[in-house]
Amino acid sequence: MELLTTTPLPAHGCIETQVVGNVLLIGINRPAKRNGWTPEMFRQLGEAYTRLDDDPSLFVGVLHAFGDHFTAGLDMPAVQSHLERGEKLIPEGLVEPHDFGKPGYRRRTKPVVAAVKGICFTVGIELMLGADIVVAGEDCRFCQKEVQRGLMPGGGATLRMSERAGLGNAMLYLLTGDEFDTPTAYRLNFVQKVVPNAQVLDEALAIAQRIAAQAPLAVTATRLNAIKAVEEGPAAAVAEFAAVQRKIFASEDWAEGVRSFVEKRPAVFKGR
């Protein structure tokens, strides 16, 4: 597909957004610096995720990158002083793209598919693990290298790598900062689908469009309940079944789902 990009591109990079039907493409755009993250990019990313959650016409997001690489990580000179002063790179009140319940931020309700290619270091791994589904190119290079720079990962890698791969497998890469490849990321459940590099965005968009064709309220409820089960345990997820289902049964989409079943046709959902 043809991607839209800012001309000229700001030196500090930017986050490009493009609407395709009910899908919001969220593009990391600083390819000259291997998409190294600046404070401006973090702010714009939070704004893009907030737009996804707040716009009723948008059902799914796709996080992708311009150029050959997803991201080489933080642009350390650009963010160093902010980190040392304890300043937040994403303004409070927005949806926090890492999605692990940081105080002062909103948690995302709608699904996001990540399209990863080339180099995917540090914050790149954390952002893709904060998404719901990850499509990766065949020859990605992954590395959670904070310990090599005197840092602890602060974007969710410590909890999500352990959750997906088991503690020992997570420690192998968290504590050494060693690189790993796409087959390893797939084996450790960090990545859900592997495709040729040229097909990464198209495949991620195709998955997002299949999700967007389903009932949006049901998709959101299913996503949030699955996350609750992982974070708070099965009992917490089961406890909200009845209340969530009552809201769904009162929706137009539920009525449309029943009609489409009776009439033997595809449903046309509106998210209400």
Terminal CA distance? 30 Å
Low-confidence stretches: none
Strand order of the largest sheet: 1-2-3-4-6-9
The whole-angstrom Rg is 19 Å
Portion of residues in helices?
A: 40-55%
Mean pLDDT: 93
Features:
11 helices; alpha/beta; 272 residues; single chain; six-stranded mixed beta sheet; 9 strands
Provide an overview of this structure.
This protein has 272 residues and is α/β, with parallel strands linked by helices. The chain is 42% helix and 15% strand. The chain has helices at 39-54, 76-84, 123-130, 157-165, 167-176, 182-187, 200-212, 216-232, 234-239, 241-249, 252-263, and strands at residues 14-20, 23-29, 60-65, 112-116, 119-121, 133-137, 141-143, 179-181, 193-195. It has a six-stranded mixed sheet with strand order 1-2-3-4-6-9, with helices on both faces. The mean pLDDT is 93.
